[in-house]
Automatic annotation (TrEMBL):
UniProt protein name: ABC-type D-xylose/L-arabinose transporter
Molecular function GO labels: ATP binding; transmembrane transporter activity
Enzyme class: translocase
Catalytic activity: L-arabinose(out) + ATP + H2O = L-arabinose(in) + ADP + phosphate + H(+); D-xylose(out) + ATP + H2O = D-xylose(in) + ADP + phosphate + H(+)
Family indicated by similarity: Belongs to the ABC transporter superfamily. Carbohydrate uptake transporter-1 (CUT1) (TC 3.A.1.1) family.
Transmembrane segments: none
Organism phylogeny: Archaea, Methanobacteriati, Methanobacteriota, Stenosarchaea group, Halobacteria
Species: Halorubellus litoreus
Location relative to the cell: Cell membrane
SMART domains to which the protein is assigned, alphabetical: AAA (SM00382)
Oligomer status and interactors: The complex is composed of two ATP-binding proteins (XacJ and XacK), two transmembrane proteins (XacH and XacI) and a solute-binding protein (XacG).
Amino acid sequence: MAELTLDNVSKVFVEDDGNHIVAVDDVSVDIRDGEFLVLVGPSGCGKSTTLRMIAGLETITDGEIRLGGEVMNDKEPKERDIAMVFQSYALYPHMTVRENMAFGLEESTSMGDDEIDERVSSAAEMMGIEELLGRKPRELSGGQQQRVALGRAIVRDPAVFLMDEPLSNLDAKLRSKMRTELQRIQEDLGVTTVYVTHDQTEAMTMSDRIAVLDDGRLQQAGTPLECYHEPANEFVAGFIGDPSMNFFDVEVQGNQLRAADFTYPVSDETLQEIGDRTTLELGIRPEDVTLSTDGATGEHDFETVVDVVEPMGDENNVYLTFDTGGEPDEDDETFVVTVGGMQQVEAGQPVTAHIPEEAVHLFDAKSGESVKNRSLEQVETLGKRV
Ligand SMILES: Nc1ncnc2c1ncn2[C@@H]1O[C@H](COP(=O)(O)OP(=O)(O)OP(=O)(O)O)[C@@H](O)[C@H]1O
């Protein structure tokens, strides 16, 4: 059993001048046995510090970390059944690949040479590095070093893998190849894994669940689709998804959401969810807006003009400006809309943007908390790309 639990975990660094930095603030999350959890968030949000506390490389200021029910707080790193893979790979330069992989086992266990050899061979096979076992790290490419670092973690057969941006030094193509390979290996081995990245594509594609951090605080822990379609707040909504969700400041007037001349009527059901709030942030995903040249025929259709078209291959990112009737430029809202690559759209072209109410997200303007999300059920019935 290797369930990993973080219970109200905090980390405060005290600098020489007495200044307190709250790097991790009261984070609680349960990582199930065999689960692949990705910790994601912007630079400085506390991802690495969280991982280092789990590894025992950093003390815990407050709270408790448990592995398989056992409290880890005061255990030395080597007493924890955990293997960590770093961004820098951290291979020993004077050792061969075989020695690098075997080193941890020789140091920390009374395992016989035969079993060590067997484990190294099997991990090398899994990582496809059998031919490299006699080489030194300097004789390897970045991708190969990365495989050795992963192989070294696998050899240990730990209860938990911790990975800190392990793919970020690889080029884009190798990175996406390693993403799928790593996922497969983790699934085959069934080892509980906590993986840190600031790359939300990695988070979306690799994880069973994502834990989104901002400013040391856990914003949401959920499946990639939950975080994408049912974000807990505006931060998660804006962070997950590329291009990012479009946001619009609106006021509630009767059954309309308004920004100067922009009016967006909503249903009674939506009004109920809004309650007595008077200011909101309206959010809409780029792929949920549709563009046409038919003119505005419905109450959720808006006339606009294409600013820029960014071809992405199979689809285009189309930038539009919504004239909301305020000061030109200042109060206008810029939108990005994703359309299929076959749809002919060019800069300067007048278009009608349709913003379907079922896909609209609403957030409390003050707290940023979610007020209305599109539900996963709606996504399925709409047959939208997810
Ligand atoms: N040893 C330290 N002493 C003081 N402050 C620290 C220390 N380590 C981290 N911090 C601070 O704690 C906060 C969280 O840092 P952390 O490295 O965990 O963030 P991160 O999300 O991993 O960022 P990145 O993606 O840039 O690596 C930051 O404000 C950082 O400056």
